[in-house]
Amino acid sequence: QKQVVESGGGLVQPGGSLRLSCAASGFTLDDYAIGWFRQAPGKEREGVTCISSTDGSTYYTDAIKGRFTISRDNAKNTVYLQMNSPKPEDTAVYYCRADNVDVLRGYWGQGTQVTVSS
Q1: 3-class DSSP state for residue 75?
Q2: Collapsing DSSP states into helix, strand and coil, what is residue 101?
Q3: 82 close to 17: Cβ distance less than 8 angstroms
Q4: Contact present, 117 and 10 (Cβ < 8 Å)
Q5: Burial level of 108, CB count in 10 A (0-12/13-18/19+)?
Q6: Residue 85 CA to chain centroid, in angstroms?
Q7: Which of 43, 65, 67, 98 could make an SS bond with 32 (beta carbons 3.0 to 4.6 A apart)?
């Protein structure tokens, strides 16, 4: 079965750090662009960062730029989201999505809850 699974969520204090993982099974993640999305209670799901499958270029929204870092480890078939200095407004369910436009395939994970609170 082809799927991506997020892990690493939990409770973190403001100013702390947390690393989320997005692990793929059943397919090779390095052929896919990966995006991290989040959905806070009562709000729409929003994209926050992505990394390309070709040259590793990245994009960050202003809300997380300078605090979060996306990276990929193709040997482990995993993409990470390093969250540094999180704020209470970063509290959300975080989802990863893998997309390959060449074969028109995409996969959503089930999400992992991140709560930023003291």
Answers
A1: helix
A2: coil
A3: yes
A4: no
A5: middle
A6: 16
A7: 98
> Buried b / exposed e across 52-77, counting CB within 10 Å, b at 16+?
ebeeeeeebeeebeeebbbebeeeeb
User: Contact 16/89 with Cβ under 8 angstroms?
Assistant: no
Report the distance separating Cα 4 and Cα 18, nearest Å.
Answer: 19
Token pair, residue 23, equals: 């692990």
Q: Determine the longest span between alpha carbons in the chain, in angstroms.
A: 44
Residues of the chain with pLDDT under 50: none
The pLDDT assigned to 78 comes to 96
At residue 17, the pLDDT reads 98
Residue type, 116: V
Q: How far is the C-alpha of 89 from the C-alpha of 24, rounded, in Å? A: 28
Q: Can you give the pLDDT at residue 43?
A: 97
The length of the chain is: 118
Q: Which residues contact 30 (CB under 8 A, 6 or more apart)?
A: 53, 72, 74, 77
